[in-house]
């Protein structure tokens, strides 16, 4: 059977990993076909992830700041929320970026084929369009960038519209009176921030002993303290065992200390994680190994067990983050173009865009302890930062961890306003091999929140004199 289309490179999936790989490969002279099941390219991140959530979080931030401003002597009154306009702002941001991406694909002559792709052999993918028509694409190389999907707990009544996953929640169907967020990780807590600012009463239930289990406890504490007073309940060490739809609401059963046996909510958001799509693309027909969970293992050049087939992004493993996917996409494209590229990033930063934000990179203290790494720590509370006080953002802290033997930076965590922006300096310092003295001798502009990295390093060094 002759293929309908033949190309040097097929990229399966157009998320941040896929489109970055496609664009980079095209820039390096490759003929590229990008397969995407949905009409818009950009994947989860652009359409139902990073970008729409950040548009809504900005709305939430403005509402929160306006409320908090009353204590500075300026009262704005109760917000008058037009949900249609809030949704429109979010869609407008997403729309601008998807149109931009299509333009960038066109400029590079990256051919977008819409439909669901499955391998039929080690050199062919069959794409089924929405109308059922099929075409076969033959490739010399392939990059699998098919991402991940929401993990669905089996006992949850998903057919009830009051039960939402993150994609449903981003649609802002309404502002419920009482909402349960199942999962106290980044996605659950970001959506809780949005719905709370818009007026919902929030209860969070988390299976682990603490919110955002991957981060150090002291970095999560400012967030926990802040939301403890604002949310109706936060149940830790607790699981939801059943959700029963009734006319009055969703009756949720809990198992855990401190939680009631049942409680009734108007809506439930389930945000317990994401599952990779490696089991849904007939990878086996190409000889590509995917594990039982759907992850596709790769080497440090993003190569699968089949040498001409690569994989990137959420489908290759944790952390499931857009900036990891884009970086991996570039590596895969460059390797295919004959460059000696490798994935050797020293760290991939994590950020929760909550109120306050929580960001961390490199080793956590928990990891250092578990791995027996001797470290020096410097922590600077934002209550001692003039800029933080001026911005009413004193509920933050900056922490740096240095290798005890070499003095090199090995980790950092920041909680507070704009922590997600501030952590980038620590990432650069780690990549450059900076040590305690590099960080404490670097003159930072005053008064800024970025100074807190400088001060925390001085604390570790024993030279900190700054409280202002
Ligand atoms: P994806 O973005 O998952 O894209 C895969 C694409 O492949 C999709 O478009 C899918 O339709 C397509 N596809 C899959 N299978 C097929 C097939 N067989 N045929 C054709 N097309 C197919 N990350 C951050 O770094 N920062 C954030 O702030 C952030 N916020 C998030 C908020 C939410 C609510 C969610 C859900 C996620 C968030 N993430 C965030 C995670 C981020 O979205 C993912 O890590 C990122 O999108 C992964 O990129 P990817 O390229 O691996 O795949």
UniProtKB/TrEMBL annotation:
Record EC number: 1.8.1.4
Note describing how the cofactor binds: Binds 1 FAD per subunit.
Family, similarity comment: Belongs to the class-I pyridine nucleotide-disulfide oxidoreductase family.
Keywords: Disulfide bond, FAD, Flavoprotein, Lipoyl, NAD, Oxidoreductase, Redox-active center
Cofactor(s) needed for function: (R)-lipoate; FAD
Domain of life: Bacteria
One term of GO molecular function: dihydrolipoyl dehydrogenase (NADH) activity
UniProt miscellaneous comment: The active site is a redox-active disulfide bond.
Protein name per its UniProtKB record: Dihydrolipoyl dehydrogenase
Catalytic activity: N(6)-[(R)-dihydrolipoyl]-L-lysyl-[protein] + NAD(+) = N(6)-[(R)-lipoyl]-L-lysyl-[protein] + NADH + H(+)
Included stretch of the parent chain: 117 to 584 of 588
Membrane-spanning segments: none
């Amino acid at each position: 059977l002759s293929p309908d289309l033949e190309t040097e490179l097929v990229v399966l999936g157009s998320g941040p990993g896929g489109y970055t790989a496609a664009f980079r490969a095209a820039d390096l002279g490759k003929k590229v076909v990008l397969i995407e099941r949905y009409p818009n390219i950009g994947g989860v991140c652009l359409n139902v992830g990073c970008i729409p959530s950040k548009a809504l979080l900005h709305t939430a931030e403005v509402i929160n700041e306006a409320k908090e401003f009353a204590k500075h002597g300026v009262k704005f009154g109760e917000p008058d929320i037009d949900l249609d306009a809030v949704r429109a702002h979010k869609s407008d941001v997403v729309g601008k970026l998807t149109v931009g991406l299509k333009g960038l694909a066109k400029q590079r002559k990256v051919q977008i084929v819409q439909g669901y792709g499955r391998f039929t052999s080690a050199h062919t993918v069959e794409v089924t369009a929405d109308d059922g028509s099929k075409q076969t694409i033959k490739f010399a190389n392939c990059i699998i960038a098919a991402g991940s999907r929401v993990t669905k707990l089996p006992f949850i009544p998903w057919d009830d519209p009051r039960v939402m996953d993150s994609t449903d929640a981003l649609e802002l169907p309404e502002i419920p009176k009482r909402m349960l967020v199942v999962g106290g990780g980044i996605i659950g807590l970001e959506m809780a921030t949005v719905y709370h600012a818009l007026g919902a009463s929030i209860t969070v239930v988390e299976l682990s002993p603490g919110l955002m289990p991957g981060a150090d406890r002291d970095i999560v504490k400012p967030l926990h303290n802040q939301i403890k007073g604002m949310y109706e309940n936060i149940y830790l060490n607790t699981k939801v065992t059943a959700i029963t739809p009734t006319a009055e609401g969703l009756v949720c059963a809990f198992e855990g200390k401190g939680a009631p046996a049942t409680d009734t909510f108007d809506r439930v958001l389930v945000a317990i994680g994401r599952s990779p799509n490696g089991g849904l693309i007939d990878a086996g027909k190409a000889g590509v190994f995917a594990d039982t969970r759907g992850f596709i293992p790769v080497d440090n050049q993003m190569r699968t067990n089949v040498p001409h087939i690569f994989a990137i992004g959420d489908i290759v493993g944790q952390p499931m983050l857009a900036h990891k996917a884009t970086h991996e996409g570039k590596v895969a494209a460059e390797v295919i173009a004959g460059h000696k590229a490798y994935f050797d990033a020293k760290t991939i930063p994590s950020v929760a865009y909550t109120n306050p934000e929580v960001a961390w990179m490199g080793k956590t203290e928990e990891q250092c302890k578990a791995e027996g790494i001797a470290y020096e720590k410097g922590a600077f509370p934002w209550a001692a930062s003039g800029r933080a006080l001026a911005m009413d953002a004193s509920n933050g802290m900056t922490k740096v961890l240095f290798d005890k033997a070499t003095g090199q930076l090995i980790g950092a965590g920041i909680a507070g306003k704009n922590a997600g922006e501030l952590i980038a300096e620590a990432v650069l310092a780690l990549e450059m091999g900076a040590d305690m003295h590099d960080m404490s001798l670097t003159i930072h502009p005053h008064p800024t929140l970025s100074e807190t990295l400088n001060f925390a390093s001085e604390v570790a060094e024993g030279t900190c004199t700054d409280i202002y």
